[in-house]
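Recap from last week: sequence in, structure out.
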Amino acid sequence: MSTMLMQNARTLSATHPAKPLDRWAPEPHGIDISALDTLGVRMSYARNAEIFGEGEPTHYVFKVVAGAARTYKVLDDGRRQISAFYLPGEVFGLEATDTHHCSAESVGRSIFLVIKRTALLSLARTDHQTTHLMWRLTAHELERVQTHMLVLIRSAQERVACFLLEMAERMGTGDVVELPMSRQDIADYLGLTIETISRTLTQLEGNGAIAVPTCRRIVLCDRAALKRLHA
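Predicted structure tokens:
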């Protein structure tokens, strides 16, 4: 993993200028994770670059600085199931075991803070705030997984509405959602086909719930209608 990490990433200086994709940086659900910034090094990943593979040792934990990451599994029949997207300010790769249970890739050109797991665990042994932080991050991840499981049993319109409201909340950009991921990514996350995603977006747009100026930009025109589907 460490060799691949260094091949796919480039260390950035602390003065690296902000890019447009830095614009989302909320702390996940009010969790202050700024303490992690002193433990890691910033590295740059190209679009679709592998971050880690399923079954590889968990040498590193990652915080998204800019861009986005996706975690996924490839099923026996070759289909890809995306389990999560991670946006700026969010942490991933924090496993309960010594190996990763899924694979991870950068969604687009991205910057991650790469933290040695041993350094994080060592600090947690002596610093109660770090211990509490890790507990909160783990609890938040469990809550996210449970919520996503419930989304997957809903109708296509309900799944897409839930997804759009979730992205709007996490990005903190109001009613305009600039999606970093493709429609195929969204389909693989929601357990739908790309055709169903496109058809559902068209239906929601026709109902006046959203507007779709571009394939990546979604405007939430009627949050109440989306929330009724989300309920």
